[in-house]
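User: I'm writing a short methods note and want a consistent example. For 15005_t:CDS:1, I'll paste the sequence; you return only the structure tokens, no commentary, since I'll be parsing the reply automatically.
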Amino acid sequence: MPQLAQTLPSEILIEICGYLHPVDLYSLASVCKRYRNLLWSKCSTTTQEIWKNSRLRYVPNLSMTPPAEMSEQEYIWLMLILKKCMFCEERNKFELTMYWEFRMYCCQKCLDDRTVSRHTLLNEWNVHDFLLSCFTQLQRSSNPRDPPLYLIEKVRATLNDYNRLSKDERPQWIKNQEKNISRLQLENEQYNNIHDLTRYDHTERLERLLKKLHEFYTWPKHRSM
Ligand SMILES: [Zn+2]
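Assistant:
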């Protein structure tokens, strides 16, 4: 196999890729450096086409194109191939959730480690409340006991951007941020739904829903508002 991996002409290799499921493409990328270079390039249109065709052919629920800043293979990895928490070794899929707002598929603990609540931002970080609408927020449910969360890393970066601006530039910057974030809201919701359809079957979706309901009614939650 290693020898064949080196000698197979590129055109044939690309043609073979056209028949493979995304999971097989992912395995193929780990065979050798040559395949990795072909399948892992984020800017090659050939690579993007290979993954896109495989996605459309084999994963009908994943027909929505990835967001502008995300490559095909990153998208498929996050939506389908990743089988554990992206930060720790948790593999129980009932303990894992997609938080598309933050581009994260992870367990509750890893989410908690990386996020901050509205209350903490206002009272401990002393962030002005008019800036809250400039951060991407995760609203897990409409339940008031389930307050929105913010990604620490993103909040820091956004605050840095804001602090670098002159006083005159700030109002317009805030408007733009708000506009961007509300534009993404609907999109995020769509990707979260697509993810659930792609990753879980009917029974699993039902089980997750029941689990969520159970959590909803077992107050108190472990974190502050
Ligand atoms: Zn984790």
